[in-house]
Amino acid sequence: MSLFEVEAWKERMDERWFDTGAAMAEAGAVDLVSIEDDKVTAHVTGSVGDLYVVQLWAPAGEGLCTCPGFEKFGACKHQAAVVTAANTADLGKVRDRMARLRDGLALDSREALIERLIELARTQPAVLTALEGR
Length: 134
Prior knowledge:
The protein is α+β, with helices and mostly antiparallel strands. It has a domain at about 5-90. Helix content is about 55%, strand content about 20%. It contains seven helices and four strands, in the order H-H-E-E-E-E-H-H-H-H-H. The protein has helices at about 5-10, 15-25, 70-75, 75-90, 90-105, 110-125, 125-130, and strands spanning about 30-35, 40-45, 50-55, 65. A four-stranded antiparallel β-sheet has the order 1-2-3-4. A hairpin with a 5-residue loop joins strand 3 (about 50-55) and strand 4. The longest helix has 16 residues, at about 90-105. The relative contact order is 0.16.
C-alpha cells in the first residue's frame, strides 16, 4: 500500500514537474527524515545542489516546500520527489529514524547537548535564529 495518492498529487502540478520530481527521487535526491502520524518531512537536494525542506501530509493532503517554485506556484517538483520516495521507501525504517535520534541524544549529558546546539548555531543561521526565539 502506498503512503501517498499519486494521482491526487499529479493533479496539483504540471505533469513535467511530477516526472522531474520522480526522476530526482530515483536518483537519490531525497532524504526521508521522518514520518510521524500522517506528516512526512524530507530534505531534497535540488537540481543545482540547493537543499530544500519538504513537508507533506498523507495520503493526498497539503504540502510545503522551502523552494522558490513552491512559493510562486504552490506546488513543486520537490514535493513530487518526496511522494515518489515515500511510496517506495521502507516506512518502518523511516518512522524509527527520529526515535533512534532521540534515544542517542538521551545518552548525552546536558553539557554535551548544549555544546552540540552551540556548534550548530555557529554554523547554521536558521538554528541560531530558532534558538534565539526570533
